[in-house]
Amino acid sequence: MASHRRPKQQSRARVTVLTTAAAAAVVLSANAANAAPSEKLSKDQVKSKVDKLYEQAEQATEKYNGAKEKQQKLQKEISTIQDNVARGQQELNKLRDGLGSMATAQYRSGGIDPSVQLFLSSNPDDYLDKASTLDQLSSQQVDALKKIQDKQRELAQERSEATEKLKDLAATRTELGNKKKEVQGKLAEAQKLLNTLTAKEKAELAAKQQRADRSSSERVDLGDAPPASGRASAAFAAAQAQIGKPYVYGATGPSSFDCSGLTSYAYAQAGVSIPRTSEAQAGIGTRIYSQSDLKVGDLVFFYGDIHHVGLYAGNGQVLHAPHTGAVVRYEAMSDMPFQFGVRV
Q1: Is the N or the C terminus of the chain less surrounded, counting Cβ atoms within 10 Å?
Q2: Is the dihedral of CA 330, 333, 339, 341 positive or negative?
Q3: pLDDT value at position 145?
Q4: Are 235 and 270 in contact (CB under 8 A)?
Q5: CA 186 to chain CA mean position, Å
Q6: How far apart are CA 25 and CA 34, in angstroms?
Q7: Which residues form the catalytic set?
Q8: Average confidence (pLDDT) over 67-95
Q9: CB 320 within 8 A of CB 328
């Protein structure tokens, strides 16, 4: 007798999965077929994006400069503390040697005072806090013990300070490394965009940049604005001598500069020490909010976060190190969002 078994059905779950996968494949195929090819950015679009990346790189550069300056300051402070600790330890050893000489003299004359003997094998803090112990010591011994105690406390405090600064230094080095990576990342991204241009487009952008660099130094009417001071005039002259030198992030001269590297270098040539970063430079001197009140040599700051600085050149012009790919040059202040000036 023939068997009449019903054919085995596929599970509903498996059918559903297969159906869904097939539908998704159809949709993806349709999308791929209908998708328009990605449009190549125009030369102007690339330049706009690159300029924005350069601005972001400069923001990170100023943070990098701040971390680098802090690192150098901490290293000097730590070195000074460590030198002080080394000298202090030598002084402490001499004081202990002196107390040991007293103990030796006591021994030769009939035995070491129990409190001194106890001190020599432990810490004076345990005994100076007890009046009964002080009563048993001579005034000379009390003075010696107090000097040792003071020196020990001083050394402990300096060692603690050094430990905290070393922690701060480690954190600063990490920040420095992160900011350096950020700057390099922005510049690499900008270069990647530039590499999408044709050779002709690259040549056109380069020629435009060269014209901007050249024309800004050769045909700029600076008017007859007076210098802010003799030092400001000397700083401005020092900056003028750097025209044509390239912008390099983190550079302070004399062969290349970033924005705050140029201003700090210029004022240093005039015998005036100003902070390294644009943010710190914004906090010195007298602020000037009206562009009409600016004088030659005043520091001028741009953008809301004050990440760019230059020197006022007169007639609405700024002398500055603009960005990667450009050189130290004059430029119209109206090309950037002016915030305020500072008279050093």
Answers
A1: N
A2: positive
A3: 78
A4: yes
A5: 16
A6: 14
A7: 259, 308, 320
A8: 91
A9: yes
Element (H, E) at 89: helix 43-108
To which residue do tokens 């020629």 refer?
A: 207
pLDDT tens, 261-306? 999 999 999 999 999 999 999 999 999 999 999 999 999 999 999 9
The confidence score (pLDDT) of residue 22 equals: 42
DSSP code string of 223-282: TTPPBS-HHHHHHHHHHHTTTTPBB-TT-BSSS-B-HHHHHHHHHHHTT----SSHHHHT
For 327, counting Cβ atoms within 10 Å of its Cβ (0-12 exposed, 13-18 middle, 19+ buried), the class is: buried
Round to whole Å and give the CA distance between 91 and 98. Answer: 11
Between 42 and 263, residue with greater pLDDT: 263
For 198-230, how does the pLDDT look when each residue is reduced to its tens digit (9 = 90+)?
999 989 888 888 887 766 666 688 988 899 999
Rounded Cα gap, residues 121 and 93, in angstroms: 14
d(CA 282, CA 268): 16
8 A C-beta contact, residue 201 and residue 47: no
Structure token pair of residue 165: 């600064």
Lowest mean pLDDT among 30-39, 142-151, 171-180, 254-263: 30-39
Any bridge partners for residue 1, and if so which?
A: none
CA distance 79 to 56: 35
The dihedral of CA 161, 167, 170, 175: what is its sign? Answer: negative
Query: Measured between alpha carbons, how far is 324 from 257 in angstroms, rounded to an integer?
Result: 10
Rounded CA separation 228/82 (Å): 43
pTM: 0.68
The pLDDT, as a whole number, for residue 94 is 84
**Whole-number Å distance between alpha carbons of 209 and 202:** 11
